[in-house]
Amino acid sequence: MRFACLLLLFVAGCSATAAPAEPVGYADEVRSLYSTMRWPADVRPDLDALIKATTPAADEQSYSRQALAVVNTCAWYRSWDAAVTRGDSAAASSSLDAITNLVTRYPPEDDKAGRQFVRDAPARAAAGDPAPVRDYVDANCFDTKWA
Questions:
Q1: How far apart are CA 136 and CA 142, in angstroms?
Q2: At a CB cut-off of 8 Å and minimum separation 6, what does 111 contact?
Q3: Which residues have CB under 8 Å from 75's CB, separation 6+?
Q4: pTM higher than 0.85, yes or no?
Q5: Residue 34 above 60 pLDDT?
């Protein structure tokens, strides 16, 4: 009897520490948002890995829009850097247009430093300085899985 009570307490304790359930529809929400965004042809996130990495607990707020904004910025910055590295001026120009006009819309208005960074990075990239783009990728994209 004593063993059965201990086993029951152990099982109850294990179930209390189990991972929270995924919020209903989170994967669909991410996929829907992803489909509305413009992505470079050569750099795409692994959506299944992204969903798994960013899924909030059932009782937490979803931040899918912010996660996709960061990953989209990573994709365009990586695409630009790869095009410059391989000497593909057409692809570099297309990606530079995206990092100049597209990803600058992602930081919230109250994130003054973030908004300034996404304005400065393409200007410096256009001038031949890849450091801000590479710094962003190193700081924000290290755990993103790419398709």
A1: 10
A2: none
A3: 39, 40, 43, 44, 45
A4: no
A5: yes
